[in-house]
Write a structure and sequence with these properties.
The structure is a homodimer of 601-residue chains. The first copy, chain A, is an alpha+beta fold and 601 residues long. In chain A, the strands form 4 sheets. A 7-stranded antiparallel sheet of chain A has the order 15-12-14-13-17-18-16, with helices on both faces. The first copy, chain A, folds into 4 domains: 118 residues, 2-Layer Sandwich (Uridine Diphospho-n-acetylenolpyruvylglucosamine Reductase, domain 2); 117 residues, 2-Layer Sandwich (Uridine Diphospho-n-acetylenolpyruvylglucosamine Reductase, domain 3), CATH 3.30.465.10; 121 residues, Alpha-Beta Plaits (2-Layer Sandwich), CATH 3.30.70.3450; 117 residues, GMP Synthetase, Chain A, domain 3 (2-Layer Sandwich), CATH 3.30.300.330. The first copy, chain A, has 23 helices and 18 strands. Chains A and B meet through strand 9, helix 10, strand 16, strand 18 and helix 19 of A and strand 9, helix 10, strand 16, strand 18 and helix 19 of B.
């Protein structure tokens, strides 16, 4: 990535960068980057074993872009006439590649379709605004000429927030915000920064860090997601334990809606009626376009370190996290893998030397013999500390004491270094396994401490059953990476071999099992991935029918013509069949196990 | 106060308490309690001196209740018929005293009117629901029969949230929530408690503390305000530095609206679209009735102490607070008085012994001579610590080091003890001074650190000018009592002798100066007192016209008949004259100084 701030902070469209990198159309990340499995000799064998793969896997690469037939392009001439004097021609793209890149996010459903060249809908046009004024122009023209606007940040969303839905014959514009990418102001005394919404994570951090500050927001998608996207989806970064979720960092914002521009004030707290920031945060583009936000930022810490610990089981690791919180001792991040995820983590290890192997096996033997660890149950905990020297040392000392109490075994800096090296690479794996007809996905939720074990256990059981139902062997894992005073997130990863000819339905059948479990067992439909289209069937149960009515009211009031990102957040009575899974599919999938005593291959 | 939990937590209306104390109709607090000035020998002389009082003040007590003519009572028979089988007769009150108690909150405008027997509007009926089911019944009947509902908690609001406005001939019911007063569940593991919204502060804390927990929310109004009121107005308590504002403590809630009941889930964080909790928090009764909330609670701390410090000036005190925050060292509360407020605080001292006097004068001499303190500029800082022994000591040690750096002089526990004794008594003073035609009020805001001095200075200047304009001598003071990473609150207190015959206009002229200054100098219209009616003229500037439109959309969607607390939050183009201050008043008041070279008496 070579994204650099080259602007003096002047909010002048003409100075903004004219091009920003797009992710590959068919998968995650940079066009020229693939997940490097060659330096991880144990990973593929681990996956094959876990997934019950026997024999050679069939390779199914994405189709060629030339073979994809794009949906008919609907170009609304009146709209273009209205905007043509306000934007430069090169801000308006209508070519196939750009339409393809903006057709989907990166959910499993998205990737499965695009890899097969299934593009039933795509934006007709992509526009790259360079100032808020241009966004206002575009929304005004769109309102007048009945054009749909889908705000687009980095394109990393995995909840279906970006896809074209409920068009009703209208032209669709994907509004790519990436040229609005400047840190406009930094108030070092107040620790606030006014930042344009289209800036990608690395570009924003470069601009802030140049001046000694950080937002402290590092989601897995960091390299390919934007501030506006984070705010619109209530994103959480790896360091949320210290810095909070994105909604905790927004001091004020500006959001252009079809009914005018919402502007809030940069004050730390207020009692000025309903919190207007909070109406915009999480609105997923259905009310308007977030153009900038003033964010709480932090001076860069002097010291920083990530350390690994091994716990005998998930429960003890959870207890250790909880006790740290109760003692008001908050490392900057704490990430606890369950046993399944721990085994996956260890399978990521790179080529080793005989000496390292010898040390590792010695450690294992020691843990088994002297600590009584069952190596099938051990859980890896990564914990990061930062601050000035005193704070850093004090936190480490306190955490060490608590972890020891719960039999945490200190592994040193090795696991932390490995995590730091590969922390943004995880999403690339999915492209690799999809080449071999393996489904891999994630679903995450949160709950209170007293319900954590129940929700974890039930969801693992439901996922295990759902995948097994479809006649294949499940891989399951879970980690906790966002902890709060009252509870934590639970982030489930699941994978299996695909059922040929029913790949998407199989996926949805499994996804449904996760979401049903969240909603029926005291969780929420998502902790930080958004509602989008993927989670529509569970919205009403999550926020109650009257809660949905409240969101509908906002939609009706601020976007009366329904031009903003239709078909997201609001369920509008969606059925499972409309979501992609018919009763017949369910019946067929839930009985596959009995029909296929050996797994598909 | 003898409020005790006597219920086993069963959410059964029949078991709820049938009576709850009401504040006196004409002033603050318990009917039989007055502010005790006799044990504060220096307070009255201090006030007289500050306010330029010469000679005897005229005493103007409140009128007798018998002399008050109530507005015509509008009883909607169809409504009563609809509800009569669902509630017991004694839940429905229509007597004069109850109407009077529920006619107003406790703003200066409220008290000034009621003390003079000016009651142009009052609720026609007061209903005391005992369950959410009854609230639903009432809102359903109210919608059908066009009856207005004003939710009423403790009645302590000072922003005009409770008064009858925009009735259009409809009957008005004040919905007094005080019988819904139970802590229904305590989840000790998750530190959450499900609590009915009508519970008063002391009752709630008694129920929680009995089981070893606290909400940690102690606003000045604590004794006479309710959980529902706090949530509906985005309240802040004295310990917000540690525990947060009320909006930070809400895990989930239930709000009955005319369009159904909003129910959210008890999860620590979510990404399920727009945060529905946040649509209800701060809604000030215009969307519905909050019936219960699940709140984050905390185990009672083992150690607790409040200490006093003296700083040479306000700026150094502010710097000390800011540095503690930057060092992640957060006492449970920090309260810094400016010089004016410090002098007022010291005037509260009780009868002293010659020895104490001698010590105090010795300390003053020492501070002047050896520390170079200017006693007209010194600022009192109260700082509270809590936690287990280690945390408590560690915080004290850290804070002491920072305070020393900024020349903070340690005063020991004395000022803290005095504060603890009288912390809920402050609102009683206003009744006392109003007996003598002295206006006393507060306005509070917040801003970021870099703007703190500017906003403080400008607002002090504007208040000074506004009060002086009206031909009287101002008393002004300010304190900081809620600090955040990006800024703090600023809480202004102001008082003066009243202009006979123009008391209310004079007050509004001064109030306007404060609010204008907040809005024109980077503040917000209120940090924790709500919009209500008092702050309507500044809403649109604070949250932007499109922000207002968003709130209007919610109102229209959830309360289409407009029965919920009309005339609050939404400005609807209100003019200053409709607010109570005509152009003629302004012209007359701003020129009074030149006409009255000596102050009124």
């Amino acid at each position: 990535m070579a994204i650099q701030s080259n602007n003096n902070g002047n909010n002048n469209g003409a100075q903004a960068k004219n091009s920003a990198p797009q992710m590959k159309w068919w998968g995650w990340g940079d066009e020229d980057k693939r997940f490097n499995i060659d330096d991880k000799p144990t990973l593929w064998p681990f996956l094959c074993k876990k997934l019950g793969v026997e024999g050679e896997l069939v390779e199914t690469p994405p189709v060629s872009i030339n073979d994809i037939e794009m949906p008919r392009q609907n170009l609304n001439e009146a709209f273009f006439t209205a905007i043509k004097d306000k934007l430069r021609p090169e801000q308006i793209h209508t070519d196939k590649k750009d339409r393809l890149v903006h057709a989907y996010g990166k959910s499993f459903r998205d990737l499965w379709r695009i890899r097969r060249g299934i593009v039933d809908f795509a934006p007709d046009c992509i526009i790259y605004p360079e100032s808020e004024e241009e966004v206002v122009t575009l929304l005004t023209a769109a309102t007048e000429h009945q054009v749909i606007i889908i705000p687009f940040g980095g394109g990393s969303n995995i909840a279906g927030c970006l896809e074209v839905r409920d068009v009703n014959g209208r032209m669709v514009v994907s509004l790519d915000m990436k040229r609005m990418n400047q840190v406009l102001e930094l108030d070092e005394e107040s620790c606030t920064a006014r930042i344009q919404a289209g800036v990608l994570g690395p570009d924003m951090e470069a601009q802030l860090q140049e001046r000694g500050h950080t937002l402290g927001h590092f989601p897995d998608s960091f390299e390919f997601s934007t501030l506006g996207g984070w705010v619109a989806t209530r994103s959480a970064g790896m360091q949320s334990d210290k810095y909070g979720k994105i909604e905790d960092m927004v001091v004020s914002l500006r959001m252009v809606t079809p009914s005018g521009t919402i502007v809030t004030r940069s004050v730390p707290k207020a009692s000025n009626g309903i919190n207007i920031n909070q109406l915009c945060i999480g609105s997923e583009g259905i009310l308007g376009v977030i153009t900038e936000a003033t964010m709480q930022v932090h001076p860069l810490p002097e010291y920083w370190g990530v350390f690994g610990y091994l716990f005998p089981d998930f429960e003890l690791g959870i207890k250790a996290i909880h006790e740290c919180i109760k003692k008001e001792c908050r490392p900057v991040f704490v990430r606890l893998n369950d046993a399944g995820k721990t085994q996956l983590s260890f399978a990521f290890k790179s080529h080793s030397t005989p000496f390292k192997e010898w040390v590792a096996s010695g450690m294992k033997a020691y843990l088994k013999k002297f600590k009584g660890f069952d190596m099938d149950k051990v859980c890896l905990m990564l914990t990061a500390f930062e601050g000035d020297y005193d704070l850093y040392q004090e936190q480490r000392r306190k955490v060490d004491a608590v972890y020891k109490k719960y039999q945490g075994f200190y592994l040193g800096r090795g696991p932390g270094r490995a995590f730091e090296r590969g922390k943004y690479d995880f999403p690339y794996i999915r492209d690799l396994v999809m080449d071999y007809n393996i489904m891999a996905d994630v679903s995450e939720t949160s709950t209170v401490w007293s319900n954590l074990h129940n929700l974890y256990k039930k969801t693992m059981d439901h996922l295990d059953k759902a995948i097994s139902d479809t006649g294949v062997v499940p891989f399951l894992g879970c980690h906790i990476s966002h902890s709060y005073f009252t509870g934590t997130s639970l982030y489930f990863s699941f994978g299996c071999q695909q059922v040929p000819g029913k790949e998407l339905q199989q996926y949805l059948y499994i996804k449904k099992a996760a979401e049903d479990s969240f909603i029926n067992n005291g969780g929420t439909l998502s902790h930080h991935h958004a509602v989008g289209f993927e989670h529509l069937p569970w919205v009403e149960q999550d926020i109650s029918p009257t809660g949905v009515k409240a969101v509908e009211s906002l939609k009706k009031g601020l976007d009366p013509m329904g031009i903003m990102n239709p078909g997201k957040i609001l369920p509008n009575g969606i059925t499972l069949e409309e979501w992609g899974l018919s009763d017949a599919d369910i019946r067929e999938l839930e009985n596959r196990q009995s029909k296929t005593p050996t797994q598909a291959s």
